[in-house]
Task: structure prediction
Amino acid sequence: MEKIKFAVVGAGHIGKRHATMVQQNPESELVALIDINEALRTEIESTFKVPFFTSFEAFLKSGIKCEVINVATPNYLHASQSIMALEHGCHVVCEKPMALTKADAEEILFKGLQAHKLVFCVMQNRYSPPSEWLKSVVSSGALGKIFMVQINCYWNRDERYYKKGGWKGLVEQDGGTLFTQFSHFIDIMFWLFGDIQNIQGKFKDFNHQDLTDFEDSGFVSFDFKKGGMGSINFSTSVWDKNLESSITIIAENGSIKVGGQYMDKVEYCHIKDYQMPELAPSNPPNDYGAYKGSAANHHYIIENVVDTLRGRNIATTNALEGLKVVEMIENIYKLKNTLKG
Result:
């Protein structure tokens, strides 16, 4: 069977990881890497041994056969490049966030439907053993009615991360802390409990005034449309290194807390008539030099794309789910802008 051909747009840390995972999958083939930074050409061509293009347009005009395009560029380019790929007749694997506005996410969704192509949104934290276990527990109904859900995300992002002259920290290109740092955890919350309403919040910029255009911390509370209430408490002003990413669930028949720096450890489980199974160890987080990010589960993403296109599975995170995460963050930021006004 012929391998599924992938091209990757964006050759930064994440783009290179996508390319590596494609090359390690026995049913996929990397055919090109695209990045505007010409200085990467020698490294890319020697490491991955595929053609390197300095513009997406040049690749699309090259005639190289490709079924899937992975978009791993800065946040503000995700929507336009996903749409270009769909118009070219390719399926899309889009890094988070899918877009920076609901309107742009909707355009991607509609374009995919028109082109009869799939859009896979990269939310690799769903593949971590604690996340998969949480999903099974919540879906089984073992917890009964959900009363409260609290998500805490306390990370460090300082001048080592926000480089002068880069796109990170610029509101029009980055989108904000919830888009770039914590959308994975909002996705987990949506995956488990659905949409939210009655949003309230408080936002603060403690020590990023010279680094970003937006807040570094916030308290956000809301109601779940399916019942129960929740909150997200977040900050990137933690000194020196990440502190925690955790979710606590208080429900009718029990309580759960999954914590650790990356929501990767079950710290508490006490559920009526339930025996906690032994989980597989979580993968280590992605390592970006001075920083570590969310779980290094990108190989599962590529496997899911291949399995879905082969008819063996369905998309783990589809375009509609990616759109809902964007909408939830956009609604939270609308509240922030209302409070500021």
About this structure: The first strand starts at residue 4 and ends at 9. DSSP finds ten helices and 15 strands in the chain.
